[in-house]
Amino acid sequence: MKHAALILSLAVMGASLAGCNKDDSDKTLGQRVDESVQASKEKMAEAQNKADAAGDKMKQEAAQASDKMKEKADAAGKVLDDTAITASVRAKIVSEPDLSNMDVKVDTKEGIVTLDGKAKTADAKDRATLVARSVEGVKDVNNNLSVQ
Description:
The structure is a single chain. By secondary structure, the protein is α+β, with helices and mostly antiparallel strands. It has one domain. It has three helices and three strands; from the N terminus they run H-H-E-E-H-E. The protein has a three-stranded mixed beta sheet. The longest helix has 67 residues, at 29-95.
């Protein structure tokens, strides 16, 4: 209903303006009103198309921003997971009687644990690998321990 009132108002204004134009003197008032209404409809359709395009662009940009946020959150989650895995592996190694006094550095990247340092025996080195593999989230273990 509001659109009809707006169209009618624009038509009346257009008709008034059209009445001032000497070139349209051969047209009837009805023709001028019809032309004004048509021009108003075209302008409204053009405005609607522009609004739709702007809305589509906003939706696309919002989706892209959402995807980037998800990627950042996933990356942050992986770092936190790696930190938790490293802490768990260290805690398990320290809790093992045969491994607790070894000098072992533990590092984790994307679930892959790397053990560096010194093991007292080959059995202790192998045990460190088994302990690291037993931690949830560990995908693989690179055991770089040297036997002393």
